[in-house]
Amino acid sequence: MPVLKTNDGTEIYYKDWGSGQPIVFSHGWPLSSDDWDAQMLFFLNHGFRVIAHDRRGHGRSSQVSDGHDMDHYADDLAALTAHLDLKGAVHVGHSTGGGEVVHYLARHGESRAAKAAIIAAVPPLMVQTAANPGGLPKSVFDDFQAQVATRRAEFYRDVAAGPFYGYNKPGAKPSEAVIQNWWRQGMMGSAKAHYDGVVAFSQTDFTEDLKKISLPVLVMHSEDDQIVPYADSAPLSAKLLKNGTLKTYKGFPHGMPTTEAATINADLLAFIKG
Prior knowledge:
single chain, alpha/beta, 8-stranded mixed β-sheet, 10 helices, Alpha/beta hydrolase, AB_hydrolase_1
C-alpha cells in the first residue's frame, strides 16, 4: 500500500491514480478516501490525476493516539502534497475535509494549489459561541462523543441510515449498500481518532483562515443539509473568502457527493475548467 510517513511517525495511506492536473480529495468524519469513489473515477476518466488519503486514525492510516486536530490534519495534507511534489493542484474537501483544506491553504500557503472546493463543509465554525450565536450548542457534539465512546457501531449505523444521506426524510428511498459502505468506512477507523475528531471539526474556528485564502474557492452546500446547517456555514464562508463562489442546492443531503454524484461532479468539473 502506498503510505507516507509524517514527521511524528504516522503512516498516511493514499491513492494516486492517473496523470494530468492533480485533484486532491479530503474526506469527512469518520470516513476514508473510499468515500470519494464516485469523484475519483469520474475525474480520472476526464484526464485528471486524482489523489485521496485516509486522514490519520481513519481508514488504513495509523491509529495513533495523538494529533487528531486541524493543525495535524493540515500538516499531514501538506506532507502529502510535498511528498508527491504536486503543482497547480485543486483541493476538494467534504465536511471535515473542507475544514482541512481551508486550514491547509491558510497554514501552508497556496504555492502548490490552483483552486479549491469545499462541499457541505464545517467552516467557519460549527459550535455555538457568543461570537457565533447561530452555531449548534456544544451539547450536540458532547453527545456525539458519548455515542462514539459507548455505542459506536450502532451510532454510525444510525447516522448513515438517517440524516447523513437524508434517508430519514418522507419519501426517501434508503440504499442499504450506501448505508453499509458508510458504516464499513467508519468502523475501519480508530475510536480515539473519531472521538477527538468531533472537537476538531466542531470547535475549530476557520474565520481567519478563510480571510487569508486568495485563490478561487467554490463553496457547495445544500439548504437541506442535516449535519452541517446551511445558514451558519456556506454563505458565511463565501463572504469571508476573497475569491469565493457560493453554489446552493435544494433537497440534497449532507452526503451529496455520493447520492447526487452526477450533479456534484458536473459542477466541480465546470469550476475546475472555468
